[in-house]
Amino acid sequence: MPSYRLHYFPESGNSYKLALMLTLCGERFEPVWTDFGGGITRTPEWRRDVNEMGEIPVLEVDGERLTQTAPILLKLAKQFGRFGGETEQEQFDVLRWLFWDNHKLTGYMATYRYYRAFTPSPDEHVLKHFRRRLDDFLSILEQHMQKNAFAIGERPTVADISMMAYLHYPADETGYDLAVSHPAINAWLKRMAQLPGWKSAYDLLPGKRLTHYAK
């Protein structure tokens, strides 16, 4: 059986995606807490020795370091035969939503949440810009989840694991009370939380937390 080491920090939704995928597939991993808030990922040494892209997460599989969450999720789905597309059309749809999430939903929510909750003096104009974009993306997902149980239909895939990661964090971090503002998304998040073995990010990823500034 492969051995897994996950370089992460608890607030990283991208780290959570990999931790959750491994957990749902019945795999254990060694957590390697990373001082993201202290700037370690921006040092030349870390980028030389851990990840040249300067990003978290990094998943070590039997000593081989893998980076970029989406291709790792797809690799694990193929390896375990779970949470992937079973037909050519499903595989296309998984990629479609996965790429949309990475470019739009995760891309903006990760930045907005970090800037809003974990920086001491965020610029209100910047926050409003990101909020407008997120409102649009969430409206797209809300309409989709009004008609579908999961991203590509009736069963969850890595696209769902990717899209739900940043949305499941507490409202005082994201700034959204999804139960009120987006009930279909909230119902989908509850369906994901009912998967056998599901755990939240802060349950799966221990370690020192970032300073929380949002009121």
How would you sum up this structure, described in words?
GO terms for molecular function: transferase activity. Pfam families: GST_C. InterPro entries: Glutathione-S-Trfase_C-like, Glutathione-S-Trfase_C_sf, Glutathione_S-Trfase, Glutathione_S-Trfase_N, GST_C, Thioredoxin-like_sf. The chain is of the alpha+beta class and 215 residues long. The protein folds into two domains: 85 residues, Glutaredoxin (3-Layer(aba) Sandwich), CATH 3.40.30; 107 residues, Glutathione S-transferase Yfyf (Class Pi), Chain A, domain 2, CATH 1.20.1050. A hairpin with a 2-residue loop joins strand 3 and strand 4. The longest helix has 31 residues.
Record keyword descriptors for this entry.
4 strands; four-stranded mixed sheet; Glutaredoxin; 2 domains; Thioredoxin-like_sf; 10 helices; 215 residues; 53% helix; Glutathione S-transferase Yfyf (Class Pi), Chain A, domain 2; Glutathione_S-Trfase_N; Glutathione-S-Trfase_C-like; alpha+beta; transferase
